[in-house]
Specification:
297 residues, mainly alpha, 13 helices
């Protein structure tokens, strides 16, 4: 470093010394410009030499220095390239305690209640915003409905039916942000208003006649594909719907929420979109008895 300071001093002296002989002929602005140029070149040389003087001892201190401006991930980047909410805790619980046919091992969930609580707390603290994509929002509320239903069962376990709980769908036990919700709030005032009738095959009421609980979490990436598969599976499930060309005996879901299934045509037109057996438009229609027994494995 001493050598560098000597170089600076020498250069500055030379610049000023040479200027004395011709100061009468060279404009003052040119002299100042030349002086600044020399200074700039020397500073660059100092910086370059400093790079080679970093020792092993001070590398760690350099690494610990934070940038003055933290990088920001825009909402646009979030929506296009990643999930707005991380559902991996819920996905892990479902993969362990829900069978392929949708039966639930509630005792297993009970053993990992703290994991479930951690996921529910995360839901409560990260309510969807207008910046979220439609698929992120749909996946969030579908998972929220199912996860809080599991909590409701666990908080009252053991029981034989969700109906053993007084007014289970009107209990205001779900805190999202600063508001308290019921399961009915999520289903009727949020999910149904999104205009996709397939949501009825993705949310689970903890009963045998309900559409089976999916053994994985909904995500922004998979929500539409999974809802499509769940709709096909439910409509063609002979335990829940008996379908022939001229006669159908179907789930009461199709009468409870008939408005959702008939916005673009008749109920039979909706069923024919997914049924493996073509149904006659004038087929006789009746509804199966609903089994409210707990969907426990």
């Amino acid at each position: 470093m001493k050598n560098l300071f000597f170089i600076i001093l020498t250069c500055l002296c030379c610049a000023c010394g040479s200027g004395k002989k011709t100061v009468q002929n060279i404009p003052l602005d040119d002299i100042i410009s030349q002086k600044k140029k020399v200074q700039s070149e020397v500073v660059i040389r100092i910086k370059e030499e400093n790079k080679t003087e970093i020792s092993v001892e001070n590398i760690d201190s350099i690494k610990s220095v934070k940038p003055a401006i933290e990088p920001v991930i825009s909402n646009k980047t979030l929506k296009n390239n990643s999930e707005a909410f991380d559902h991996h805790l819920w996905n892990g619980l479902l993969s362990k305690y829900v069978s392929k046919n949708g039966l639930v091992y509630y005792k297993g969930f009970k053993q990992e209640y703290q994991v479930l609580k951690k996921y529910l707390d995360a839901l409560s603290n990260h309510i969807p915003t207008d910046q979220w994509s439609e698929t992120d929002t749909l996946a969030y509320w579908m998972n929220a409905y199912n996860a809080f239903t599991i909590k409701l069962i666990l908080d009252n376990y053991p029981l034989k039916s969700i109906k053993d709980i007084k007014n289970p769908w009107d209990l205001r036990f779900i805190k999202i942000g600063h508001k308290w919700y019921t399961l009915n709030d999520i289903e009727h005032r949020i999910l149904r208003k999104m205009g996709d009738p397939r949501i009825h095959f993705g949310i689970n009421c903890a009963s045998f006649s309900c559409p089976p609980l999916l053994d994985k979490a909904f995500t922004s990436q998979n929500v539409h594909q999974e809802l499509e598969q769940l709709t096909i599976a439910f409509i063609n499930d002979s335990k829940r719907n008996t379908i022939s060309s001229n006669s159908i005996q179907i789930s009461k879901i199709f009468t409870w929420f008939s408005k959702d299934f008939t916005k673009k045509g008749s109920l039979i037109q909706f069923l024919n979109t997914y049924s493996k057996t073509p149904i006659n438009p004038k087929a006789k229609k009746s509804f199966k008895k609903y089994n409210w027994s707990l969907n426990e494995s």
